[in-house]
Q: What sequence folds into this?
């Protein structure tokens, strides 16, 4: 591998569970590294990581830097910060690009690293690319010039119907966090080879001032929206918190389904934030997305428009959601949802066992 | 003085829920748009108020923004802040999060050492959730992001934060920076007594000048080369409208819901949407 500064992915893992976002970031990193003609490195921190480094190689890393120490068994800001900085400092030159997940870990850690290096960080990207940039602005002469191989960090901006391309070629690493469920993994290939490099971090007493008392993860009841194959989402049209019963009920027809929500229902306290789909919630890409009583505001749309099949139920035939759904039913969700539940079973489950 | 010294960072953002100032293409005309206190920051303020109610102390609200941002400081007083600072300076224009965090950490140092610095999880306009942790890095503080619950005891913070698929309880000594999630607790209304007091303050310039202070880069001892456009490592290279997806939605708008749904099922089969695989 060349020793040109590469693309570094900081791997998201929670208690030994490799998060899908890590594989998505490796997919994005491969694409960027290909355009730059450099390598992909993955930094994984934790304890008793087992075959995780090997899996990272299979999923696209040319080199995996492994910091496997008991101090890192649980994520804490200061220990992971120290480990990340120690690894980056040990490189002959800082990486060209550093990517983190826009998760509760990545969004906690990435800004600390960026502030430490006084470098740019773009949050919650939905696209990443490489390209040229010409800065003409007179306001800051130190920035003027034409720059090659810039990271294009692209994200929806200002809750408006705009996308913005954020650029920061003046200093490496150029950093970004990316939303879960948006980037495409390159797929596991067990014939892929790469280097696994162990690394040991020396901690200071101050790195341990935050203690994890308890971590409660209930994967059975969790809203892993980004993993669900079918999402049934409720909007303000539900009229109140009890309306989510109807949403859950319809979701129960499907294997691997989850309940989503619009921000207006979350802000109204009808359902926890973890269910929110959209610009300030999760970006999802299920095979089927069913929207009940959701108007389809741009901020909701950017979080779900990549879904395979979008079915919308809304009593207003002019609702914006009908501009981008694949199938639209105009009607009262309270009438339609129960019939949908019944009909999905009848038309698809029974047919497949030959009852027809 | 007993209790804890707290800083709450608040920002004024465009209110896009009203039509005013929102252009037909969805962009915001900031000059015409209505303005509001970033909704997430109310949760930060509220946590500060909870700590003050339990242990006593002082709440200082700080905002960085153009002069009209003073409006949200008045609102912060109504919620229960004791004193407020408006950091305003032309040299701050076009600051990205790194430069914003630089200026704000200087302002936090200027108002004196704080036991707890509260920020919202994120703003509705910048929408990065970065500013808080970047301030913590510069102040060399531990942090809890996505905080939902907080107990302060014997100079220590016990905090519950959101993690994917659950939550986590952490313990850390003060001083600390905390970014508060909007799942933290239901927002309470402003107390009538506070609102009333602020109404009187608004009529008394001299008293008001003891509650809301205006500061600039020179006052807080910030280097202007590290703020604004010059101090920002990132710029917006280009923006473009999200294209209309222009999907051709197949509309089912007959009179009977049953009929519509049956029709949908037929279409899903016809179009081979692979639904069979997904039914329980
Ligand atoms: C910076 C910013 C970020 C944002 N981020 C997000 C985000 O992440 N996610 C998000 O969702 N929103 C987000 N929003 C809010 C977004 O702009 C909309 O306000 C929100 O999506 C609207 O939610 P809704 O569709 O549930 O409600 P409404 O817009 O009120 O729509 C309710 C719909 O229900 C229909 N309806 C009513 N009764 C019935 C019935 N009985 N049967 C069938 N249909 C019925 C109505 O016709 C209407 O279309 C954001 C906004 C801003 C400014
Ligand atoms: N200009 C500002 N003035 C005061 N606080 C700010 C400012 N910008 C950001 N913050 C704080 O940082 C948090 C995160 O903002 P952001 O990084 O923009 O999403 C906000 O909720 C505020 O508490």
A:
């Amino acid at each position: 591998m060349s020793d040109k500064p590469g693309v570094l992915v900081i791997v998201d893992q929670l208690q030994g569970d490799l998060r899908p976002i890590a594989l998505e970031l490796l997919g994005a990193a491969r694409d960027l590294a290909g355009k730059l003609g450099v390598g992909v490195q993955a930094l994984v921190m934790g304890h008793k990581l087992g075959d995780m480094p090997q899996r990272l190689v299979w999923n696209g890393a040319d080199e995996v830097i492994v910091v496997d120490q008991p101090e890192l068994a649980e994520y804490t800001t200061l220990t992971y910060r120290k480990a990340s900085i120690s690894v980056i400092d040990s490189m002959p030159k800082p990486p060209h690009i550093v990517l983190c997940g826009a998760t509760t870990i990545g969004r906690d850690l990435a800004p600390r690293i960026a502030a430490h290096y006084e470098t740019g960080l773009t949050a919650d990207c939905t696209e990443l690319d490489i390209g040229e940039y010409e800065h003409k602005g007179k306001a800051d002469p130190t920035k003027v010039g034409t720059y090659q191989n810039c990271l294009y960090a692209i994200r929806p901006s200002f809750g408006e119907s705009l996308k913005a391309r954020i650029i920061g070629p003046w200093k490496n690493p150029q950093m970004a966090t990316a939303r879960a469920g948006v980037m495409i993994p390159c797929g596991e290939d067990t014939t892929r080879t790469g280097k696994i490099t162990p690394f040991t971090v020396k901690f200071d007493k101050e790195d341990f001032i935050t203690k994890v008392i308890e971590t409660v993860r209930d994967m059975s009841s969790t809203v892993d929206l980004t993993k669900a194959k079918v999402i049934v989402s409720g909007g303000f049209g539900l009229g109140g918190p009890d309306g989510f019963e109807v949403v859950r009920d319809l979701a129960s027809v499907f294997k691997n389904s989850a309940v989503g929500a619009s921000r207006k229902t979350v802000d109204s306290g009808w359902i926890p934030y973890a269910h929110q789909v959209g610009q300030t919630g999760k970006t999802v890409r299920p095979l089927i997305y069913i929207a009940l009583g959701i108007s389809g505001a741009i901020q909701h749309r950017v979080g779900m428009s990549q879904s395979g099949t979008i079915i919308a139920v809304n009593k207003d035939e002019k609702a914006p959601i009908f501009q981008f759904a694949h199938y639209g039913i105009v009607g009262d969700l309270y009438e339609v949802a129960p019939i949908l539940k019944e009909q999905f079973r009848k038309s698809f489950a029974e047919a497949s066992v030959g009852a027809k | 003085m007993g209790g804890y010294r707290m800083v709450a960072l608040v920002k004024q953002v465009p209110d896009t829920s009203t039509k005013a100032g929102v252009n037909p293409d969805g962009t915001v005309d900031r000059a015409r748009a209505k303005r509001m206190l970033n909704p997430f920051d109310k949760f930060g303020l509220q946590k500060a108020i909870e700590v003050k109610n339990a242990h006593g102390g002082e709440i200082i609200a700080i905002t960085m923004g153009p002069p009209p941002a003073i409006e949200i400081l008045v609102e912060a007083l109504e919620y229960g802040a004791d004193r407020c600072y408006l950091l305003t300076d032309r040299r701050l224009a076009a600051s990205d999060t790194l430069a914003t965090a630089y200026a704000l950490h200087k302002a936090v140092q200027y108002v004196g050492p704080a036991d707890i610095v509260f920020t919202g999880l994120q703003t509705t306009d910048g929408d990065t959730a970065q500013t808080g942790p970047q301030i913590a890095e510069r102040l060399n503080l531990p942090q809890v992001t996505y905080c939902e619950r907080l107990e302060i005891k014997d100079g220590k913070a016990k905090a519950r934060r959101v993690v994917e698929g659950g939550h986590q309880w952490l313990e850390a000594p003060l001083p600390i920076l905390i970014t508060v999630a909007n799942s933290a607790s239901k927002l309470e209304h402003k107390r009538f007594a506070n609102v009333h007091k602020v109404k009187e303050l608004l009529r008394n310039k001299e008293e008001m000048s003891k509650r809301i202070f205006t500061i600039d880069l020179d006052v807080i001892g910030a280097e202007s080369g590290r703020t604004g456009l010059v101090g920002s490592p990132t710029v917006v290279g280009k923006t473009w409208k999200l294209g209309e997806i222009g999907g051709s939605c197949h509309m089912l708008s007959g009179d009977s819901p049953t009929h519509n749904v049956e029709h949908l099922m037929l279409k899903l089969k016809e179009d081979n949407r692979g639904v069979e695989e997904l039914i329980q």
